Amino acid sequence: MYIIVGLGNPGRRYAGTRHNIGFSAITALAEAHDISVDTKKHKAKIGTGVIDGEKVILVQPLTYMNLSGECVKELVDYYKIDVTTELIIIYDDVDLDVGRLRVRAQGRAGGHNGIKNIVAQLGTQVFTRIRVGVGKKPEGWDLANHVLAKIPDEEQPAIREALQQTVQACELIIQKDVKAAMNRFNQAPAASEKE
Asked: How far is the C-alpha of 138 from the C-alpha of 101, rounded, in Å?
């Protein structure tokens, strides 16, 4: 069984913001596999379904970003999953270009408060994460204002593509393993993209 958690903040005012890319990924995954994410329990909105023959629980925490670990810990304890192999966390990353993905089997929080809280609650940094690039903050901007801003129209195509790739990355992790997803989605930019 897999628990797949997309990080974000609940409420209409946060919908469509950079910080809520995890929520958007869960919505995309739910739509791709006909799973309804509409049950409220474990401090989250959750939906249960099957992806490639494996039972999955899709999760959008309702604790607000900085307390995401409370929801994740409750789910992990209740379903007694192995966090090193059966937990996937999806979240925004300001250090990656808009739309770029980075899949990892473990790692530090890197300044992301949601991940910091999950690490603190679980007592480990060893869990699969999919970071979705939302771009660096503009010069002179406050980081909070950047991540809580709505994603502009010109970035929407890259974000839509990233969400589809996130769905595919989750499917590949379930079908094979995290290494297969890393090999496919952690590609270096093409020479033309670097220029």
From this structure: 20
